[in-house]
Structure formats: C-alpha cells, structure tokens
Design brief:
Blueprint: H1 4-26, H2 37-44, H3 59-73, H4 91-98, E1 115-118, H5 119-125, H6 132-140, E2 146-151, E3 157-162, H7 170-183, E4 188-192, H8 201-212, E5 220-225, H9 231-236, E6 238-240, E7 265-270, H10 277-287, E8 291-296, E9 304-305, E10 309-311, E11 314-317, E12 321-324, E13 340-341, H11 356-367
Parallel strand pairs: 3-4, 4-7, 7-8, 8-13
Antiparallel strand pairs: 1-11, 2-3, 5-6, 5-12, 9-12, 10-11
Helix pairs in contact: 1-5, 2-3, 3-4, 7-8, 8-10
Length: 416
C-alpha cells in the first residue's frame, strides 16, 4: 500500500545525490573536522547577524551561519535545544537536530515540516527558470489539468476544476479556467485539491478571491505571525483579497481583472495530501463567511510556512510563520475534517460524475446530505487503493516522483 512516507523516501534520492555534490563543492566533506564555535556562541548568548557569516563554506562556518539564521528566523527559536556541533558533521543532520520536536496539541511533533536540501534540488522542485532540469519539468507540468462543466442530478450547472499544485504558472492557468466557468454561468464549483500539497501563497490568494467575488475585495485573506524578534513583520505581513492580479506570472499582467464567480459556497475534494496553501483556500474563505464543504478525507494540517534561504549551495526551509484567517483562526494542526468522508476508487476517471468524491459533492449540492455510509474519521491510508490501483495511477494525477511530493514542497512559500 502506497503512503506519503514512501513517496517522500523515493523523492529524497534526488536530494541525497545533490547533497554529495554540495559537500564536495564547499570543501566540507570527508576528512574535515567540525569545530564547536556554534555551541560556544550559544553558551555566550551571542548570535552575530547571519548575513555576516554567509558564504563561509567549511562545515564549521556553515553551522555558525545556520545557528544564527535559526535564531533570527525560526518560528520556535526560543525553544531550540542546543545541539553539539561535534556530533553533527553534516549540515542536514545539524539542521534536523535544531528543530523543535515537542508534541503539539495533536500529539504529533510540532515541527514535522522544516526541510533542507541542495540548492540544485530546490531549484528543480520550485521550477526555477534558470535551472535546465526545472525548465524541462515545467514544459510538461500542468497544475490545472482538467476543467469542465457537469450537471447534478437535479440539473444544476456545476464547474469542476482539478488543481494539482500551487506552482509558478498555476495562477495563469486558474484565471483561464475560472474565466471559462464564469462564461458558462455555473451555479456551483467543485475544486479538486486531493493531490495538491501546496506551494506559493499568492496562487491560493487569487483562487480564493475568484471564488468569493468582489464582495470581499480588500478584506483579509491571511495574516502572518513570525517569532517575537520579528514582531514588526507580524504587524504588517498581511494578504488581502483583491479583484485584480496582485503578482503577475506570464499571461495575465499586474492589475488584470480577475474573473469573479461570487459563490456563497465552495465544494473542495480533499485527501491527506491536501496541505498548506491548499488549506489556506479553505481557511481564508471560511474567515470571510463563504461556506466551504469538504468531501473526501481530512487534510494534512499545516498552518505554517517558510521562505527559502540558501547558503553554500544548500537550501533551507525552516518553519518561519503561522497563518490566520480574518476571524483569527489558524490552529488546524490536525487538519480540516471533512463534511462527507468518502473513500477513493482510483479506477474511476477524475471529472466523471461517477467518481466517488465528485459524485458525493453533486449529491450534497442537490440534497444537502452526504452519501449513505460516509463518516468523518481518518482513512487507514493516505492513498486509497482498490484492487491494487493507486490514487496516482490516473492520467491527470501527478506522478509519484513529482517534485511536489518531495519534503519541502508543501511549504506555503509566500512568493517565488
């Protein structure tokens, strides 16, 4: 049976291979000794500005930079348990030792999301334009592979959008899709996020704004709270709903009017892969009074995010902030429970009215009820199987080795 952990172990092979190149390039690989300067800085209470330590690519130099950067940026910086640098000769190992693993309210490690990988691997994961591998991947990637209009049993016109990733280019694809649905005069919308592990927050901001319409223009989409050393950023880092493009990609320019669906409710198809920026769509719309009905399985539970920070060929993604909607809610570490718990059948086609999750949404649109026999409990497996078929076998699904399933992708990054 296929699990997220298995997917991520497979994807981590690229990171491991890139890390070998990183250590050789920085001169911090085999045979070197590791100093204890970072520990000394901690014990003396001194943390130099991380910018003054950047680019010192011995293991000791990278450790000193990393400890200062974590002191500045990490959401739980005051709870870091110091790690003996002598015991952690690799940068990923030292980074992992600094993370706060104490249980949260759900009983799971508070930080189960921070990640580091080589800069080359991060470029591929994020579709960085000057990375050849990323360009090749981007040419075949489609964050919105399926858009159609279907009819409910009672004849309501329903838009269906399969939205797989909040990557660069996804905003343009969503605007095109929503324009088509607006022109079709749909009465309801089903947004399929079952594969969507998150990504850039501006894409979620645009998607939610197109659903809600001009009535929420200027209202709070999400506020962002950093650690207490960054209180000024917490006071000013807010994202608002808008009827226009706020961050341009390739097709639609800054200020371009967004297609407005102005829907009082939204149906979202979810799984335990539905994470981060995908959860931002749900939470932000609920914060401004839009009814959001979830069908499928509980979401992953990640109200946190980060920026990417590089040093000496290594990219770091430590959790830096927590997000909150207009109602002040941001504590969903256990994920959002679904209103209709529906098991997957990977042998049915996405977008078909007979596909179980979409069928349940259409039934709820007509009747206000979930199909008989559904419940709100967790699934036994994050990727449901039926007779050996995987959730990722469908043609429109991301491949199992997609960069989206690498650790670090579902970071709710604020910007490219």
């Amino acid at each position: 049976m296929l699990h997220v952990a298995a997917l991520r172990r497979a994807a981590a092979l690229l990171t491991a291979a890139s890390l070998t190149l990183l250590l050789a390039a920085c001169g911090g690989g085999g045979g070197g000794t590791t100093g204890d300067t970072a520990t000394a800085l901690v014990s003396s209470g001194l943390f130099p500005e991380s910018s003054t330590l950047a680019g010192q690519c011995t293991v000791d130099g990278q450790q000193r930079w990393l400890r200062s950067y974590m002191h500045e940026a990490y959401l739980w910086a005051n709870e870091i348990q110091e790690a003996d640098t002598q015991q952690h000769g690799s940068l990923p190992g030292y980074f992992d030792a600094l993370l706060v693993r104490t249980p949260d309210a759900t009983g799971r490690p508070r930080d189960r999301f921070s990640m580091t990988m080589s800069s080359a691997a991060a470029d591929v994961m994020q579709n960085v334009s000057d990375a050849a591998a990323a360009a090749a991947m981007a040419s075949s990637a489609n964050p919105v592979p399926l858009v159609r209009t279907v009819r409910s049993g009672n004849g309501r016109k329903v838009g269906y959008v399969l939205f797989n990733e909040h990557s660069r280019g996804a905003q343009d694809a969503l605007i095109t899709a929503f324009t088509s649905l607006r022109n079709s005069a749909i009465q309801d919308l089903v947004l399929d996020l079952r594969y969507n592990a998150g990504g850039f927050i501006y894409v979620a901001q645009t998607a939610a704004a197109m659903v809600a319409g001009p009535a929420v223009d200027g209202q709070l989409f999400e506020s962002v709270r950093f650690n207490d050393r960054r209180s000024s950023e917490s006071a000013t880092e807010t994202f608002l709903f808008s009827t226009r493009v706020q961050r341009e990609e390739s097709t639609y320019a800054l200020g371009h009017p967004l297609p407005q669906l102005s829907l009082p409710r939204l149906y979202v198809l979810t799984s335990q892969l539905t994470c981060s920026a995908s959860e931002s769509i749900v939470n932000s719309l609920r914060g401004v009074g839009v009814q959001v009905i979830l069908v499928g399985d509980r979401t992953c539970g990640k109200p946190y995010g980060f920026y990417r920070k590089d040093n000496c060929g290594q990219a770091y993604f430590p959790i830096e902030f927590q997000v909150y909607n207009a109602a002040g809610f941001g504590d969903y570490q256990d994920g959002f429970p679904v209103q209709c718990r529906v098991a997957e059948n990977p042998r049915t086609s996405l977008g078909s009215t007979s596909e179980p999750l979409l069928a349940a949404a259409l039934n709820h649109i007509d009747t206000g009820n979930c199909p008989t026999g559904t419940a709100t409990a967790f699934a036994a497996s994050v990727l449901q199987q039926s007779g050996g078929a995987s959730l990722l076998d469908r043609p429109e699904a991301p491949p199992a080795d997609s960069p989206m399933y690498q650790p670090g992708w579902n970071g709710r990054r604020l910007q490219p």
